Amino acid sequence: MRRLCLTLSVAALLSLIGRSSFATSIFVESDASTLCAAVSSGVPTTAELTKLNGGNTAGLTFHTVFPGAQGTFTPVPPGAPAGTEVVSIPLIVSSVSPSGFFEVTFDLPSVFEDVQLTGVANADDKGRAFLNGHAISPALSATGHIDEFDNVGFSTSDASYFEPGENVLLIADDNTGGPSGVAFYADITYNTVPEPATMTLFGLGLAGLIGRRIRRSSGR
Questions:
Q1: Most buried by CB count within 10 Å: which residue of 47, 155, 160, 177?
Q2: Does the CA dihedral 112-114-117-118 come out positive or negative?
Q3: May I ask the CATH architecture of the domain 21-195?
Q4: Residue 28 to residues 70, 103, 107, 141: CA-CA distances in angstroms?
């Protein structure tokens, strides 16, 4: 009878655990560790605007940003994590800051569900957000695009946009004159799903411990 109860208890526990998931949240933000790449040496050409609007980073070399405003009036969005700051692409010419891309990364586990990214950005003069190459905010010329002062939000819950392992959040910055800079942050939330093999091992170990306790209590 005790063995039957043990079997049923472990089976019920494994069933419960197998359905369980664990909520996790990751924050990323613009700071001194953000990477950037210049697309233009001044006001972008039509071809350079196409690269910016499409999130096309082919052939670009990313390097460390200039932290701080560097002459731009771009504000840090309200609600940003501590340490979020305005960042800029190092100057190529003295009159106009380059347009280009800003990149931060985050890692996801091999198995996850209910994933969502929600962020806010400001960009001098216009910006667009991409997740792993997928646009998640309006085009640079469209209504609702990221701009310098309006704390524009961007988000996606499309699971196909997310990858196990490293994910790349990219902010394009179209600067039409003078200094430039961006400030942004994003919150990534997801549920971690325990892998079946892990749960099986856990269950076997738990069954052994319970069985041992029963044998001791019965004097065997």
A1: 155
A2: negative
A3: Sandwich (2.60)
A4: 22, 10, 11, 26
> Around Cβ 66, how many Cβ atoms within 10 Å?
16
The pLDDT assigned to 175 comes to 94
Please give the pLDDT value at position 204.
47
Nearest 5°: phi and psi at 59? Answer: 80, 0
DSSP 8-72: HHHHHHHHHHHT--EEEEEEEE-STT-EEEES-SSS--HHHHHHHHHT--TT---EE-EES-TT-
Q: Kindly list the averaged pLDDT for each block of 10 residues, start to end, along the chain of length 220.
A: 47 50 92 96 92 97 92 96 94 76 97 97 97 98 97 98 98 92 98 64 47 55
